[in-house]
Specification:
Chain lengths: 274, 94
C-alpha cells in the first residue's frame, strides 16, 4: 500500500482548530481555499514585516514621544498580522518558521528604515494604500475579512494621518529635513507600482469578492499622495522602473536579514514558551 | 531636535467622565503634533475620549509661597457650604 505524504504543520494547525467544528462547517471549507490563504498571507506578511521594521526603532527614536508613536504603530501592525496569520494557519509557525521564498509581503515594507525621514516616507506610501484597501475590504464577501477590516481601518486611518503630518513637518522644515525627506521618498517610490499589480492569484480573490481591486483606487491614491507632498512643499519623485516580485517570494536582499533577527529566538530554542 | 520643542500640558477626559484631568506633559513642535503625541502617550489604554493640550507657557499658576494668604482664609467658614438646607422629598432630584 503506498504510504501517505507526511502531515504538513499548517494542516495540523487547521485540524486542531477544527476539532470543535463539524466537517461540513463553512470554516472547514474556507481554510483549504488556496486563493483565500494566499490573500491572508499577503496582507498578513505586509503587516508582520512592516511591524518588525517599525519596532526596530524602539529605544532609538529621535525623541521620547516619537519613540512611543512608532512603537504604537508597530504594535498595531503586529496585532493585525496576528489576526491574519492565525486565520491562515498556525500564526507562530508562519511567522517564525517560513523562509524568505515563502513570504508574501510587498517589497515596500521590507525596505530598511534608514533615517526617520526614510521610515516616514515608506510609511506614508504604504499606509495610504493600506487604508484605501481596508476601506474597501469592509465589503468583502468573507465574514472574517469584513470584521478584520472594520477593526483595522480605524487604526490605519491614524497611521496614515501621522505619516502625512510628519511628511509635512519634515518636507516643509529645515534644509536638512527637506533633503532627507526627498531622499527617503526617492528610495521607496519605485516599490509603489507593486501595490497596484494584480496577478492571477489576486485576480481570483477579486473575482470571488474576497479582495478589492487595487487598480480601482490607484487614481485616488496618487491624488492623496500628491496632496500631502504639495502641503509638504515637495515634488513627487520621478517615476522609475517598477520593481515587483515580493508577492511571489522574490524579495530584495533586505528580507533575509530581517528574518534572521526576527526568527532567531524561536528557531534556536524551538521548545521555548513564555 | 527636541531642544527647541515647547512643552505642552495634557488633559484627558475619561469615557463617561465630566471633566478633563491633568495627566502629564509632552514635547512637540506645534499644536497638531502635540495632540498626536498626547494621544500616543496618554491614551494607550483607553484612558480617555477627549484630549486637551495647552502650551505650558500659557498656564498661569498661583505662587506656592502665597498659598497661605490665598487659601487659608477659606478654612472654617462653614456658612459657605450649602449643607443647612433640607431638601423636601418632592423635589429630591432638583
Amino acid at each position: 500500500m503506498p504510504s501517505l505524504p507526511p502531515i504538513r504543520p499548517e494542516d495540523e494547525a487547521v485540524a486542531a482548530k477544527l476539532r470543535s467544528h463539524g466537517a461540513f462547517d463553512p470554516n472547514a471549507v474556507e481554510h483549504h481555499d488556496p486563493v483565500r490563504r494566499e490573500l491572508l498571507l499577503r496582507i498578513g506578511d505586509d503587516a508582520l514585516v512592516l511591524g518588525q521594521r517599525v519596532s526596530e526603532w524602539c529605544g532609538h527614536g529621535p525623541v521620547l514621544e516619537v519613540d512611543i508613536s512608532l512603537a504604537n504603530l508597530a504594535l498595531d501592525l503586529i496585532g493585525q498580522a496576528t489576526l491574519l496569520l492565525n486565520d491562515a494557519g498556525d500564526g507562530d509557525q508562519l511567522a517564525f518558521h517560513r523562509d524568505v521564498l515563502d513570504f508574501r509581503n510587498c517589497l515596500l515594507v521590507e525596505q530598511p528604515n534608514g533615517d526617520f525621514a526614510q521610515t516616514i516616507a515608506r510609511h506614508l506610501l504604504y499606509t495610504t494604500w493600506q487604508h484605501m484597501f481596508l476601506q474597501r475590504l469592509t465589503q468583502s464577501s468573507d465574514q472574517f475579512l469584513r470584521d478584520f477590516a472594520h477593526k483595522a481601518v480605524k487604526e490605519v486611518a491614524y497611521h496614515r494621518e501621522i505619516a502625512s503630518e510628519w511628511t509635512v513637518r519634515l518636507g516643509d522644515g529645515t534644509e536638512e529635513s527637506t533633503r532627507r525627506m526627498v531622499e527617503g521618498l526617492d528610495w521607496n517610490w519605485r516599490f509603489v507600482p507593486e501595490l497596484f499589480d494584480v496577478d492571477g492569484s489576486l485576480q481570483s480573490a477579486i473575482d470571488a469578492g474576497l479582495a478589492p481591486d487595487p487598480r480601482e483606487f490607484e487614481d485616488e491614491y496618487r491624488s492623496a499622495i500628491a496632496a500631502v507632498l504639495a502641503e509638504a512643499q515637495l515634488e513627487a519623485p520621478a517615476d522609475q522602473r517598477p520593481i515587483l516580485g515580493g508577492r511571489t517570494g522574490h524579495h530584495s536582499e533586505h528580507l533575509g536579514h530581517l528574518l534572521a533577527v526576527m526568527q532567531f529566538l524561536p528557531r534556536t530554542y524551538p521548545d521555548a514558551v513564555w | 531636535m527636541s531642544g527647541d520643542w515647547p512643552l505642552w500640558e495634557v488633559f484627558v477626559r475619561a469615557k463617561g467622565g465630566l471633566s478633563h484631568r491633568h495627566v502629564g506633559s509632552v514635547h512637540a513642535p506645534d499644536a497638531e503634533l502635540a495632540l498626536r503625541h498626547a494621544r500616543d502617550t496618554y491614551t494607550r489604554r483607553l484612558e480617555g475620549v477627549s484630549l486637551w493640550v495647552v502650551p505650558s507657557a500659557e498656564i498661569v499658576a498661583s505662587d506656592p509661597d502665597e498659598a497661605g494668604e490665598l487659601f487659608e482664609p477659606a478654612e472654617s467658614k462653614i456658612y459657605r457650604h450649602p449643607t443647612f438646607y433640607e431638601i423636601p422629598d418632592e423635589v429630591k432630584h432638583i
